[in-house]
Amino acid sequence: MTRFQPVAALVALACGTLPAFAAAADDAAALRAELQALKNDYDTRISSLEARIAELEASPAPSAAAPAAAAMPVAAGEARSTAAAFNPSLSVILGGTYSNLSQDPGNWQMSGFIPSGGEVGPGERSFNLDESELTIAANVDPYFSAAVTAAISAEDEIEVEEAYFRTLALPSGFTAKGGRFFSGLGYLNEVHAHAWDFVDQPLVYQAFLANQRAQDGVQLKWLAPTDLFVELGAEAGNGEAFPGTRRDRNGLNATTLFAHVGGDIGDSASWRAGASWLDARAEERTYEDVDELGAPVLDAFTGKSATWVVDAIFKWSPQGNTARQQLKLQGEYMRRKEDGDLTFDMQGQGLVGAYASEQSGWYLQSVFQFRPRWRVGVRYDTLDSGTPDIALVQSGLLPAAAFPVLRPADPERISVMLDWNPTEFSRLRAQYAWDDARATDDQDRQFFLQYLFGIGAHGAHKF
Amino acid sequence: MLNLIRSVLALLILAAAVPAHAALKILATTADWGALATELGGERVDVYIATNALQDVHRVEAKPSLVARARTAALVVATGAEIEVGWLPVLIQESGNPRIQPGTKGYFEAAPQVTLLEVPSRLDRSMGDIHPLGNPHVHLDPHNIAIVAKALTARLAELDATGAQYYAQRGTDFDARWTQAIARWESKAAPLKGVPVVVIHRDQAYLCHWLGLVEVAAIEPKPGLPPTTSYLASLVTRLSASPPRMILRNAYNDSKAVTWLSGRIHAPVVTLPYSVGGTPEAKDLFGLFEDTLNRLLAGGQ
């Protein structure tokens, strides 16, 4: 041994100092232990891999899509469980229609009513891609949830249909909502297009609310602690949506109040009824018309607009089993008073005079699911424009023919539909309508075929 | 005069005291969980059941009456595993009731307490109405009921601490009676082991698993999809050679397809309550299993 001492010393010198040598010896032991541990680890890993291979060989050949998932390394699973686990729920609704219209949709006009500027009317002829609705929603934290619904149009535009937060933890039956949301007035206003029972909205919604009223503002709802459903709500917003306009003014520019009551009648029937009030103000709410000579002019309304809505819905299913049969009966009545000034030919003569109107309309519809997956429906729509007081006409300054859009009228429409719902996620529909909205006697006979498909998160079964 | 004032005061105090002793309000999604909550909570709970045995629990709508009940509930007892996914989240959201939000003490699901069968390895809606977390119809195995009962007893005691003793005692009592009943049912059901049956939907899976019934075919080609005539015809050819002993139908199922198949393959249709209240005999949880077994044994003759 002693003979080797110089060698050891040399090695020690080569390695540096003596303490370093001692440390090296320690390191060697640690290395050996580490190697052993590694070996053990690999042994267990290899045997588990062998077991997995045996298992895979024993099981039948996986289907086409499965190998990708099976071959996924563990790391992918780990990434999913952390980064993606909190991903919000996602759902997309695809829709499209084929339309056959007997009249030129270009001259469709709700006679007697100031145009709402919304996407109203029967739409265009032939094949149409409807809006694709993309909804992303999740709880934010224990206090709030949030949801955004974007509508991607066939014209390659993205519109924010709804984007709101909602409280989860307010006491005493209160819920607050803020952002952009479909106003709680009436019944159909809160229903998204893909859940409508017909291809289009009732005429009264098209004329009074530009199809559907989205409020940019806040909503507070209170639910009574009673067995009878009693809900009271109030909204305040910037007032931009029809019948209001955006105004250069701080504060509450549109107010909505609503109340709903509802309940069951035995096991088979349920109902809900409500009343709502919308107070809005318009400033230079422009619309296109033609003067008495047929030249295009731009007219505008400035003033107060108050709308009353009364709604009711009744549903019946044998023993409440909606899978088998369901009968739905619903109707809404709206009445609107507008008071202010009407400007004739804003870009030209700019004549201003007082204007007042009181207009109303209603629809009644029934949809019957006569057997699982199949539904038929019928709807009747009507509006009464009344005769507006137009000071410019009454004073003799302009002839009544200068306001052809406002000529008194009572548009009417009857629609029938049949739809087939292979599953909860798909719907194919045929609809036929006799539309007398135009001022002329030319009835528009409209035939629609529509598809609606939902992918992603399971939709809500709203009442 | 003093006496009158005293009695009025006493009345007022009594009236004020009533809410303090008011029962714990429970909203149960099905009659089965409602029955279990009543077994365990006795007089300390006030149970409202959202659906009845003749309804398809998946297809329920968030009716105003249910939103109103969710508003005042202190506890929601649900099946879970997403069977109520279409309506329960809407109720909770619309209720304005922070006490029953998922993740709080006031929200209880049965399915996470037990082992779920048929957890799909692959998720795709082309496979029909599959439930990502597994088959949610857990209540038809009485062993599951026993497990859920223990968890629910603990939850009741947590929510209503003054009644903890009461719930514990009722829980023990229920467990003893239930264990006895299971033993009785299992010996009675011995002849059902290995008996081939046809089901409609996969909602008998836990019952079949418990009793050892063998599901040889389902009338729905894929979960939630009604059979086509060609599919039914293929079932007839397949099953004629070795017909099942019976075709199981739940009280809420339509009888058309099963009756048609029954005539072709000469196997009787046995209508089972599926849920408490599904048959006149299934008055409570004990009645549900008692009647289910009686009907199966009679049908299997």
> Which range does the strand content of chain B fall in?
5-15%
* Share of helix of chain A, binned: 10-25%
Q: What is the distance, rounded to the nearest whole angstrom, between the alpha carbons of the first and last residues of chain A?
A: 94 Å
Helix content of chain B: 40-55%
Largest sheet of chain A: 16 strands, antiparallel, barrel
Element order of chain A: H for helix, E for strand:
HHHHEEEEEEHEEEEEEEEEHEEE
Biggest interface pair, counts: A-B, 56 and 42 residues
Average pLDDT figure of chain A: 87
Radius of gyration of chain B: 22 Å
The dominant shape of chain A is globular
Strand line-up across the major sheet of chain A: 1-3-4-5-6-7-8-9-10-11-12-13-14-16-17-18
Percent of residues of chain A in beta strands? Answer: over 45%
Q: What summary fits the major beta sheet of chain B? A: 4 strands, parallel
Widest sheet: strand ordering of chain B: 2-1-3-4
Q: Segments of chain A where pLDDT lies below 50 for 5+ residues?
A: 1-24, 57-79
What would your notes on this structure say?
The complex is a heterodimer of chains A (463) and B (301). With 463 residues, chain A is an alpha+beta fold. Helix content of chain A is 17%, strand content 47%. The longest helix of chain A is centred in the first third of the chain and has 41 residues. Chain B has 301 residues and is an alpha/beta fold. Chain B has ten helices and eight strands. In chain B, the strands form two sheets. A four-stranded parallel β-sheet of chain B has the order 2-1-3-4, sandwiched between helices. Chain B has a four-stranded parallel β-sheet with strand order 6-5-7-8. In chain B, strand 7, helix 9 and strand 8 form a beta-alpha-beta unit. In chain B, helix 5 packs antiparallel against helix 6 and helix 6 runs parallel beside helix 10. Chain B is globular, with a radius of gyration of 22 Å. At the A-B interface, strand 7, strand 8, strand 9 and strand 10 of A face helix 3 and helix 4 of B.
